[in-house]
Structure of Molybdopterin molybdenumtransferase:
Amino acid sequence: MTIPIAWTAAREAVFTAAQSRIPKASESVPLAEADGRTLAEPLVTLTDLPAFPTSSVDGWAARGPAPWRIAGRVLAGDTAAPLTEDGTCVEIATGGMVPAGTTVVVRIEDSSTTDGLVSGEPRKLPDWRRQGEEAAAGEELLAAGTPVTPGVIGLAASCGYDTLACRALPKAAVLVFGDELLTAGPPGQGRVRDALGPSVPSWLRRAGASVAAARGPVADTLDAHVAALQEAVDSGAQLICTTGGTMHGPVDHLHPALAELGARYVVNTVAVRPGFPMLVAQLPGGQFVAGLPGNPQSTFVALVSLVLPLLAGLAGRQRPELSTVTLGADVPGRGDFTHLALVTLVGGRAHPVGHVGSAMLRGLAGSVGFAVIPPGGEGHAGDVAQLVPLS
């Protein structure tokens, strides 16, 4: 009998195993297409940031004491000539280059003009940004392994980048097991609709993987399982997610198929409810197989428990961090198992949702994530609990 591994240990085990498979090669990705990717190299400033002193207000860039004679105008995008004499100033727009020789910048609303001379008082805090104030040329701003977000893209653009060196997206394949599944139309007459083929690829893409549509249903025979797994390997997939067949029933062929292909288990069953018959195995070529239970909610528990840390490791990112929530109602424990309880936010506090059976998706569709109730414990209203967020 297989002894389930603790939930926290399982997450660490798959993350560590995946780190050995981080791709060495990188690819140049245009900024507009880089969202969701992972930096393959540190983001280093190509110039000082800002590259030149800039005014943060509309006003006057002046040299020496007031009053100042107007000597010109600097708009955003202009190259400013230096101020060489005390008692002179230029009108300047927000974002304009502050001329060399400037000693103060005065806001337009803090100034007055009489007979062509400007008077005014600068505010206590300077109203212009010094060259290199944010970063010096060559300074590392973000480390390799940082997820690319719109904020990262904006920062890279401000530094002068047109493309980013990104790690290749981990390639994933999805195999849906189960002869009883329908791929179209309503369920009935002993057959259920496949809810995982359309949804699991979407989850994997959100987690940073490249994945085609799911293949299936794969026939409930050992030969068909072995052939489908081998086909996924031949397609170049680094991660193969399977749904169903993780137990040892009469048509559960995943374990025998893994044995025939020479796989070794990284994790085989996890002490978590729902969804404990989940697994991650590694094939001789280094590819990972994530065996997800066939019941839909259990599938998604397995995804957040094992697949998200695995993909983070493959992408060279940090292990996924858990957030915290304050419980707004009691949440039961599950004995020696970690309980992942679906919750929604009501008034800023996490409340359990209904319709959370292993085969149900209604509760999941309205949830923000899973509250983590540790083994041997239970959650009480007012307690702070860890949260596994849904993407």
About this structure: The mean pLDDT is 94.
